[in-house]
Specification:
- It is a single chain.
- By secondary structure, the protein is of the alpha/beta class.
- It has a single domain, classed as Rossmann fold.
- It has eight helices and eleven strands.
- The radius of gyration is 18 Å and the shape is globular.
Length: about 290
């Protein structure tokens, strides 16, 4: 298992981007475009209750060779929520959104990166819609769901989230979940500033529809790996236990091409904890598949 240490790429400045909205399955999804137009495409999917800004501190590591975009998934960030009587935030729905997004952006032979929940969505997409995606990086995703984990998500969905009188109060109280992140203060504050908004009642809350938790499924994702034939990297944080040796062995028995790499000095939120390490590991993988 390859391990990455921090290096000179660790300048703590978010990458510039342009912002676009694109209608996908009747909802307007927000897209961050870091550039560079004309280069091979790289699309980034964030985790649950997060948003596209989770990639702000790593995008600059790829824009020299790739056209890098990150999307706010439905119900997250500044994308629209599903306000129908039975909102659909299932993995298959998200994967269908990615498929439509890839078609509308005319993404071909593109690289897909998915962190946490985004990794599960990427797995469903790669297994269900082959042909466009060239390579896949799954970043610290819980590949094996448990009933206890699903029950925890359901409990979150059924209770009101915290709210604050001002943005300053929101930022002061903000924490990434799960905990354990060692992100630099500059990065933590940037994520906090990008994760809340003022609602109609004047209170500040997280920019996520809490109903997204109610759609978390008890999915047996291992059969998906029987269908994923493209080059794939499982990336884990050094201090995270989400991708364990038993899980790796099961995945590799179904998809022998899968590689595994560990990013040092990182927990679950690798792009925040060690941006340089994330870039180093990802680039090493991408350099082999050009």
């Amino acid at each position: 298992m390859m391990s990455a240490q921090p290096n000179a790429l660790s300048a703590l400045k978010p990458a510039p981007y342009t912002e676009h909205y694109i209608e996908i399955a009747g909802l307007k999804l927000r897209l961050q475009d870091y550039g560079t137009t004309g280069r091979p495409a790289l699309l980034c999917l964030h985790g649950g209750a997060a948003n596209a800004h989770w990639y702000d501190f790593v995008a600059q590591g790829f824009t020299g060779d790739y056209h890098v975009r990150a999307v706010d998934l439905r119900g997250h960030g500044d994308s629209q929520w599903d306000n129908s009587p039975a909102p659909d935030y299932a993995y298959k729905r998200h994967a269908a959104d990615v498929n439509e997004l890839a078609q509308k952006l005319d993404l071909r032979d593109f690289v897909l990166i998915g962190h946490s929940m985004g990794g599960m969505i990427g797995s469903v997409y790669s297994a269900t819609y082959p042909g466009r995606v060239k390579a896949f990086m799954l970043v610290d995703t819980t590949i094996k769901m448990t009933p206890e984990r699903i029950a925890g998500f359901s409990a979150i969905s059924n209770r009101e989230g915290r709210h604050y009188a001002s943005q300053d109060e929101f930022i002061a109280a903000y924490k990434v979940h799960p905990g354990g992140s060692t992100a630099a203060p500059e990065i933590h504050r940037h994520i906090a500033q990008s994760s809340g908004r003022q609602f109609d009642d004047g209170r500040w809350r997280h920019k996520v529809d809490r109903k997204v938790y109610g759609n978390r499924e008890m999915v047996d994702s291992f059969p998906l790996w029987n269908k994923i034939k493209i080059p794939t990297l499982l990336m884990k944080g050094e201090r995270s236990q989400r991708i364990d040796p038993v899980t790796v062995a099961d995945v590799k028995s179904r998809a022998p091409q899968v590689e595994v790499a560990e990013v040092a000095n990182a927990d679950h939120h690798i792009t925040l904890d060690n941006p340089a390490g994330f870039i180093q590991v990802a680039r090493a993988f991408l350099d082999k598949i050009k």
